[in-house]
Predict the structure.
Amino acid sequence: MTAMIEIVNIIAGLVLAMGILPSIPAIGKDLHKLAVWIGRFQTIIGIIAVILGILHLGLQGIVAIVAGLVLMTGILPSIPAIGKDLEKLAKWLGGFQTLIGIIAIIVGIMGLL
């Protein structure tokens, strides 16, 4: 149970960094295929990441919240009162999607070690 947020960070990071995965020697193409398959569930992964991030505040939690917001950009406007503001934030963060993904993967792996 303790490694759950780290695993979610790695999964969210793979989806966010999907564009650069093929350039990783030896395993990049396989990671890219995995990320494409996981990417079909990006909204669900985003929701889980935000919830776990709120429950586990700290470095892992902050990374999970940021990654989760980017992953769930499409449904943010449907949240009453703050949805529009969260959508603007998530779209701005989306410009750094690959960087956020790399950070999420690194922080997630470091948390597992």
User: Anything to note?
Assistant: The chain has a mean pLDDT of 88.
